[in-house]
Amino acid sequence: MRNPVNLRQRLSQSLATLAQSFSLKGSVFFLLTLGLTVGSAVEANAAPPETAPPQIKDTLTQIDAAANRRDLESVLKFYSPSFKNSDGLTSTALGQALTKLWERYPQLTYRTELQSWENDGNAIVAETITYITGEQSGQGSPMKLASTLRSRQRYEGQTIVSSEILAEDSQVTSGTNPPTVQVILPEKVRIGQQFAFDVIVQQPLGDNLLLGTALEEQITPERYATSPDFELELLPAGGIFKVGRAPLRAEPRWVSAVLIWGEGMTTITRRLQIVDSSSSSRNLSR
Asked: Which residue in 36, 177, 193, 249 could disulfide with 189, CB within 3.0 to 4.6 Å?
């Protein structure tokens, strides 16, 4: 079996990185709204992206370009002063989140794809997918970030006035050989419904000890800037296998997992939509 002392050393190096990755979670996901409302019933009549007005395509291109050169002032020009997203976050919070994230990940790359659009009165409602990749270098192993967000936003002219996050997926890895994982989690569940959350390590464990935990968090503006409390446990199987139950209010949740072994660390976070629900951060039950 691998020397437990080496694992403890690796663990001590990883815990600071782990705390950073969780504290960045909200910033990353809010940040993903850069290319990205309140959806109402526009989906049924949405038109394909190739038929979208030039100003929408141009706006998305300009926002990506401004984000890629880390030009905060240019990014925020595309957001209404009264902007608010479905999690209750404002344009001011967006600026703060961008500043923190760019300090830690100075080489992020943004790419936004338009999926569909529709006229809604004097506004245009568009659905997009934004991809963010990057790496943070510093003390210890570099942290690699890969995030994807699907959202719907409302444009008035070239200004985004509101945004609804439909789905999100983020992964942060570090080390020479971080666990490669398969994640099984539904995109949405009904209020009070039981659901499975499995994070399966794809590599053979060999003589590696595997530590990890799973978390479920209520999504609130305050949690975008804070890190949850968690305790790592020794995992007897090749991953995390948990069962959770949706809250009794239709409010989305962040569902996260962290896995650490001697050669690296992987953290993942996904959004779970609760149809027709909520509570505070808690560990998922077995």
From this structure: 193
